[in-house]
Amino acid sequence: MYDGTEQDLLRLLASRAGISPEYHDIAGTLHLTSDDTTRAILSAMGFRVDSRESLAQELSSWDAAVWQRPCDPILIVQQGYDAVQWSLRLLLESQDEQSLAVTWYLSDEKGVVIHRAEAGPGLVPQEERDVAGRRALCFQLPLPPDLPLGYYDLSVVARSNKGDTKGLLRVVVAPPHCYVPDAMAKGGRVWGLAVQLYSLRSQTNWGVGDFTDLARLVEWAGRDLGAGIIGLNPLHALKNSRPHHLSPYSPTSRLFLNELYIDLERLPEYRSSPDAQRLRNSPEFQKDLERVRQSDRVDSESVVKAKRTMLDFAYRQFLKENYTGAEPSLQPTSARGWLLERFIRDEGDSLERFALFQVLEEERRLVELAPKLWPEWPEQYRTPQTLALREFAKRHRKRVRFFQYMQWVAADQLKDAKARAAQVHMAVGLYPDLALGSDRNGGEAWMLQDVLALGADCGAPPDAFAPQGQNWGFAPFHPLRLKATGYRSFVELLRKTLRQGGAVRIDHVMMLFRLFWVPRGLTAAAGAYVQYPAEDLLSLLALESTRAQTLVIGEDLGTVPDYVREQLARYKILSYRVFYFERNWNDGSFNPPSAYPEQSLAVVTTHDLPTLSGYWTGEDIRLRASLGMYPSEESRQQACEERARDKRHMLAALERAGLWPAGLSDHLDQVPEMTPELCRAIHVYLATSPAWIVMANLDDVIGEVTQMNLPGTLDAYPNWSRKLSLSLEELQRDERAQWLAAAVRSLRSPAGTS
Questions:
Q1: In the chain, N or C: fewer CB atoms in 10 Å?
Q2: Tens of pLDDT along 15-65?
Q3: What is the pLDDT of residues 116-148, one digit of tens each?
Q4: Are 476 and 458 in contact (CB under 8 A)?
Q5: Which residue spans within 400-501 are E strands per DSSP?
Q6: Alpha helices in 436-548 (DSSP H)
Q7: Taking the mean position of all CA atoms in its chain, how far away is CA 506?
Q8: Distances (CA, A) of 10 to 3, 93, 371, 589
Q9: Apex CA 626: angle with CA 620 and CA 629, to 5°?
Q10: Where along the chain do its domains lie?
Q11: 80-174, CATH topology level
């Protein structure tokens, strides 16, 4: 039993669980983690911390836990590893030790046994412990050398007079770093365009940018502009309802795609469905379609309702044309039917559960008097593995398959857009975002609640942009449970995202190292950092990146310790450098292009910041003032003065770099507006840097003033719904895009050349 005061035991348990006792904020101020915060976070992790006795018991249980299973949950080694031992732990009496014999098998991902070995009797333990009055022994056994990259299952049987003990160890062989295209590693440099997919207008979409629009954008940017990469918002599944469920960064699930982006016109079963075509040609539908298409805002709720109705008609027609029999014994009769069956099989349990969750949500909305979130559902439906749910799934098999069908259609259309990038010889191709977390009341949280800490939220400590800190409302991954399950949920999340394109941006990449936890119901001021097994997570990311041949960019803005960036660089994860922030904060001057790291992506601004034109005109300051987001007129005036200084610094940086735009006033204080020439000069400034990738936001190219998202607002500002002012058809004729592309690509040696 543990000795010491209750506070001593609390802090010891916190240390073992990875709760940091202190942190420095972006200003360098030291914050100590209070005992109340420590206790709340430990409770969110599932520990009993209400008394000294319970803390002592938890610590004793912690010590005993490693001896309760014969093998560790996972062993990760780096490719080319030297001699490696794995641990076998057994509870044995003295008379049983001499008879101990061990046999183990190593199987690859297809289940093929590739190695078999035996040891004993006469094994010598490397460690001995007393665990709850029992004798516990640890033996070290050799891992076979030179295993190729991949995942393996090591199955062990230990036989003694006591009987047989079985164990299972997951073995991972990972590369030393993430994937980097050969051409880029040899000196090739890339430029590209970034866009929020939903914001694309076209003459054919249904009021929101879709996967067909994306394919057309890719073809134009790659063929006519020489772009090598197209940056995108997260494509994760959303509920698409205002105001809480529009943000691509707050999805219902990161494992699957947003049905909003499906192009119905490409589905043969939609075109052949009499019901769908009858509705499509009705005056009411045509009127609504024209309204949402012409609107300057995406009406996600109307669009997703229309698409869901049409997808339902298309699915019924799909079953008629491609299947025979009745539920639950439907059998595919065509190649298209078999494609769906293969997709369902390959996606496995996660797709089945996600589709089941959506059916449950539909059903609960029908039977409940008031909407209820899944934590409030009847107990038999709150977790995905109950007998009642299996029966529910059988009764609703056809509807479950409908949601699987929608994901198949979305994945197939995204795959086509990805293929188009290869056809126009884009060096990287699509570059989607991986959000930090998901809606705690959404499908992913319901599916993964065994590895989430639902009693806590993710957030950020106080900084210059959020003096009170931030609480994002996502339930964080539980690092201890994540490791105990062999990181399977994390790997699946990576695998599904990495396959979407040639690169991926990991939002808040610090989550691989540490995450700011806020006890549920408290403010961010009561938060603390929790450490994550970074080496394990980075190794798994490196393996999945290499397998998918997908470049990784880490969004490393905010409070980033030096060691984090050092580790990211070692794993060849590109740093995310935003022009607005690349400053000498002593005097406010902008860093020269040469200061940007080679292993980085450089961009002027992001979705959470003002566009270049909005920054220049102070539209963001005006907007914040109109919403009462400044505490006083003096603070608003101070923001205006700081912006004026920043603009002078920006122009001075261009002048030092010899990039002063022709026709621009020679006086730094006499540049009242953002011109195409000035926009081009700023992007050329970035293009002269050694950064591997330079991005231009389409918003900036065509002079959009308002930003996509205004942090700190919910329904006071139309976040995540502004469309571009030009359609795809108009963009392809717009000279500003051609001029900027010509200037930037001339400075970026094509990836593919050295």
A1: N
A2: 999 999 999 887 788 999 999 999 999 999 999 999 999 999 999 999 999
A3: 999 988 899 999 988 878 889 999 999 999 999
A4: yes
A5: 429-431, 433-434, 456-460, 470-471
A6: 443-447, 479-484, 488-498, 534-548
A7: 5
A8: 12, 34, 40, 46
A9: 75
A10: 6-65, 80-174
A11: Immunoglobulin-like (2.60.40)
